[in-house]
Amino acid sequence: MRYIGAVYRPPSEAQSLIIQATLGCNHNKCTFCGSYRDKRFQIRSLEDIKEDLAEARHMGPVERVFLADGDALCIPQKRLEDVMRAVNEALPSVERIGIYANAKNILRKSLEDLKALRALKLGILYLGVETGDPDLLVKICKGATYEQLVEAARRVKDAGITLSVTVLLGIGGINGGEKHASGTARILTDMDPDYVGALSVIVVPGTPLHEEYVKGEFSVPEPFDLINELRIMIAESSFSNCVFRSNHASNYLPVKATLPRDKDQILEAIDRVLRSRDQRSLRPEFMRAL
Questions:
Q1: 102 and 23 in contact (C-beta within 8 Å)?
Q2: Does residue 4 fall inside a structural domain?
Q3: Are 108 and 101 in contact (CB under 8 A)?
Q4: What residues form the membrane-spanning segments (predicted)?
Q5: What is the structure's pLDDT at 178?
Q6: Residue 26 and residue 237: Cα distance in Å, rounded?
Q7: Are strands 162-169 and 195-200 parallel, antiparallel or unpaired?
Q8: Is the distance from CB of 157 to CB of 190 less than 8 angstroms?
Q9: Number of domains in the chain
Q10: Can you give the pLDDT at residue 228?
Q11: In degrees, to the nearest 5, what angle opens at C-alpha 95 toward C-alphas 59 and 104?
């Protein structure tokens, strides 16, 4: 299998076959992200993708495929449908195809477009939200407004596609943490996703956020402040039925809950950690990673 440069995928796609439908990210401006800074964005040819799929046919039954890189949903509709047909034809055992997306590229697809992709087994879409604070969305160059993120999320759900979103603890810095957390709870409530993954900010060299950090314009909140942000997000949000996780390697306190069912129980557990402020209850620093 041919891969060009570093390849990233969501934790839940660990057992999936990864096919690079694009190289890099067509936005690639988020101040905190260093994932695709070394790649010039391009859409791979259908012929190259089919060659990879032909090789994958010899790997045995494949149930899940993830289309990398950063935002393969930006591929024009007809061409993307051709890619997904190629996946289905080469790997008839496939049950679900996953993809990263950003709000603007979701909104470039009509509801009918998304339903057509769903019929071709697009089963889950991963959307980076990071924050619900409108000012912070501008500051981190997310490329979408609060309203666009919510509209995009609702369109995905209306199409019958599972929606998984990520939010970023600590991205508001020391002084903006609670505003960021409350705003994020609001946007999560408005979006009502199926899954939420909370990660913690890690300053990556070579990013604009790192430049702010070096200049003293950004400071990472202390571990218990990050956990307090997590508490606010859970306490102030409201979901129909959502799996909420903070068990990514970047986090100090791993949490997995189904909300609203587990809300009281998980808040009590977080409160015990915040009251004790016992460092032994946190993931050690040397074990944290992107």
A1: no
A2: no
A3: no
A4: none
A5: 97
A6: 31
A7: parallel
A8: no
A9: 1
A10: 98
A11: 110
Residue 106 lies in a domain: yes
- Cβ burial of 190 (10 Å; 0-12, 13-18, 19+) is middle
Q: What pLDDT does residue 288 have?
A: 85
The tokens for 210 are 């790192």
Apex CA 158: angle with CA 154 and CA 159, to 5°?
120
What is the CATH number for 108? 3.80.30.20
pLDDT at 52: 95
Residue 2 lies in a domain: no
| Distance in angstroms (rounded) separating the CA atoms of residues 206 and 66 | 27
Q: What is the 3-state secondary structure (H, E, C) of the chain?
A: CCCCCCCCCCHHHCCCEEEECEECCCCCCCCCCCCCCCCCCEECCHHHHHHHHHHHHHHCCCCEEEEECCCHHHCCHHHHHHHHHHHHHHCCCCCEEEEEECHHHHHCCCHHHHHHHHHCCEEEEEEEEECCCHHHHHHCCCCCCHHHHHHHHHHHHHCCCEEEEEEEECCCCCCCHHHHHHHHHHHHHHHCCCEEEEEECCCCCCCHHHHHHHCCCCCCCCHHHHHHHHHHHHHHCCCCCEEEECCCCCCCCCCEEEECCCHHHHHHHHHHHHHHCCHHHCCCHHHCCC
- The Cβ of residue 212 has, within 10 Å, a number of other Cβ atoms equal to 17
